[in-house]
From TrEMBL, chain A:
Residue stretches of biased makeup (Basic residues): 239-259
Domain of life assignment: Eukaryota
Region (Disordered), start-end ranges: 238-386
Organism: Oxytricha trifallax
InterPro entries in UniProt: NA-bd_OB-fold, TEBB, TEBP_beta_dom_sf
Comp. bias regions, Basic and acidic residues: 260-277
Composition skew (Low complexity), residue ranges: 299-315, 367-377
GO molecular function, one term: telomeric DNA binding
Protein name from the UniProt record: Telomere-binding protein beta subunit
Automatic annotation (TrEMBL), chain B:
Family note: Belongs to the telombin family.
Provenance organism: Oxytricha trifallax
Protein name, per record: Telomere-binding protein subunit alpha
Gene3D superfamilies registered for this protein in UniProt: Nucleic acid-binding proteins (2.40.50.140)
Record-level Gene Ontology MF annotations: G-rich strand telomeric DNA binding; telomerase inhibitor activity
SUPFAM superfamilies xrefs: Nucleic acid-binding proteins
Amino acid sequence: MSKSQQVQQQSAFKQLYTELFNNGGDFGKVSNNLKKPLKCYVKESYPHFLVTDGYFFVTPYFTKEAVTEFHSKFPNVNIVDLHDKVIVINNWSLELRRVNSAEVFTSYANLEARLIVHSFKPNLQERLNPTRYPVNLYRDDEFKTTIQHFRHQALQQSLAKNLKQENIPDIAKVTGGDKKAKVDAGIVRASTSKGDEFSDFSFKEGNTATIRIQDIFVQEKGKDALSKLGGEGDVKVKGGARGKAKAASKSAKGKKVSAKKADVAAADVRKSVDKIVKYTPNKPSSRKETPQKSQSVPAAGKSSAKKTATGSKKTLPANPSPSGKKSTKTTDQMTMAQFKRYLEWHEKKKGGKTSSGGKVLGKRSAGKASATSGKASKASKRSAKK
Amino acid sequence: MSSAAKNQRSTSRVTKKKTTGPKDAAPKKAEKGSKYEYVELTKAQLTSVTAQHFYAVVIDATFPYKTNQERYICSLKIVDPSLYLKKEKGTGDNSDYATLVLYAKRFEDLPIIHRLGDIIRIHRATIRLYNGQRQFNANIFYSSSWALFSTDKKSALQEIGGQEATSDLVPFSHSGKNFTFQKNEAGIVQNIRKWAQQYFTQYSVISNDMFTALNKAQAQKGDFDVVAKILQIHELDEYTNELKLKDASGQVFYTLALKLKFPHLRTGEVVRIRSATYDETSTQKKVLLLSHYSNIVTFISTSKLAKELRGKITDDRAVEKAALKQDVSLSAVVLTEVDKKHAGLPAHSLHDLFHNADSDKELSSKDTFRTQFYVTKIEPSDVKEWVKAYDRKTKKVTSLKGSAAKGGDNIFQVSFLVKDASTQLNNNTYRVLLYTHDGLGANFFNGVKADNLHKNADARKKLEEYSELLTRFNSYVDAVVERRNGFYFIKDTRIVY
DNA sequence: GGGTTTTGGGG
């Protein structure tokens, strides 16, 4: 029933996310050979955290454990300051969620395949090779079509189940020449589910609790870091649950997350590092805005690859944050324009709801994500974009 | 001195903000006649530090795009009677041109070019040599201004009713709040308009050195331009159209075009794409990626290039035929064709047909519509019951099951439960009927007539295949439906596979 | 300026 990809898909994200949809949203059915560490470039880190595989950008969703471990192992690195850096996601899983696509731009047709990150680390010295301009995976022609296919299957299954008794209009009833007859007689409810939106899906919706980047920001920069700078600390995040009112009430309940079924696959994610981003012959790249004593990359094809003991706890980034120590200044790594942008972003959000995924953050989430480290390998360079 | 002044921006675009708008399209300073002297592109003084004014014909343009927090840019290629053909030997009829770069603080202050061959008037532009080429710069955020005049009777947006109509000497869009026009400009506009028409009639304008053949797209390093015919416009979703393109090389490509950004595109038209890249991640179909500065433009009616391509490029449906051989295909297949006599019938979404038809004055006054949808289920599910015996007098239908001969005529009585982009997310499905008792839709199944399907195994088999084809993922129906008694009946529509 | 924003499905 799935398509035949005669040609190898070059984008790791597209292949992964597509497989999830083609397997009914069941991560356990996704090919195990794809469950390897993901090395990606952090395109943006605030107010949206986006990573790319060299072709597309997606939003990674960090579990509380992932954030805690990261801060523990890299005390002087802010997640929110990872913009333009490389990170390796060693433990992850994928899950399907129903969301409001009018508010979540990394979703389509009210569905979102989420990359749940259980463990990740930064590769501060690594530079990836220049790639094409990364675009939103959820705006890709084939991927959108794959999601439409997923919905099409769900709809047909629902119809087969709910419309067993057929009801065809009698010819006598449709030949009266009644100009006033209303057209709504032709509207047929697909399923008995409540609400106007189709929701008769059979997939098991994910419910892993993750931490919003805004909360990570506050955690790293201080609860009033924003208000001090003129913005408002009270920010609202779009997305998460469907429907605003619904989203609020839902999250309010604060349901617990079952840590067990959680990520069947999390454990399988190990193997060797996946070559997400194409490496290329390195060429020293220098970035303008981040004065970093970037080690010139070894000449070989793979490169600088600092294989920092990934799994070890001792590791301290050879080259911490730009300032050398954890920064609490919100302006770090930001140009005046960016700074202005995020202030505006917060400004715009204030007054909104506080919950995002509709789940509670506090409690530990699913899966005992055992951080498995792959060997960071094929490093490469990525010339800085302006 | 000035005439045809308007108080409101003549552009149909909505100005969202009301910040300090730019100056008038034609700042009025002196009260005397010829305040503005228009120069030919070739005469503009490269040494002059003074701003200059001119009229030119647009032959290429980026979409206005944002470059940073405070700037928007729109870059154009322009020509006029003094600059339009490369003079060097061996360049054939390659076009020569000057570039015009407009800068603004707001997106709304820049011109949107939907069609090549239209006329642009610029006030207060500076000129310099950039890469050995004449480049005009217009700072709309300061004192420069622009105005666009349609070369054809109507502008691209006016043709689709998306812009207020204007007369020949009034721009269909311009920067600033006001627009001024000197008496002596009438002749200038009419002259350059005539020149533009002849120029496009005699030359390709978009010469071969200005675009890449699609069969060479994959080999391109970066972005490139395209000139192709739109074979099909498939509504992928509420915001997006998927264009099926084919160029002179015969290669077919698909590309996503936002409805709001490109509202003027129509099937059958030839377009030029300014900046596209080959998508290496699309493995099921050939796809072109566009950027925010990419533009898709049509050509003025006299275009020789567009005319040649429209007649030369045809759709052999090869992509679809191959797609239908797969279990699941990511290529949308439109299974039907509607009678040519409905070519001009405007299309309406299912949402309009089933949720607005009785409330909207326009819709309720009509009874024939063009619409596209996909079939989720067909009733009766038993194909053998698609054809019934119909008694015209009693209007009763009877199953043809059984050996006893039934009286009356054999007719199709089938109900399609359909859906489309406008109703994609809701919990409804909509009934569209294929009832041939009055002749409507009699040819829908491409030659398969209504016969006793309990006996005619051949017809039954074909219809069972059509049943599968119609309800398979990514199969669409483009149909004309007629409203009768609140129901919609398919007519003048035929499956072509 | 033959380009890369967020308005993050005109920009």
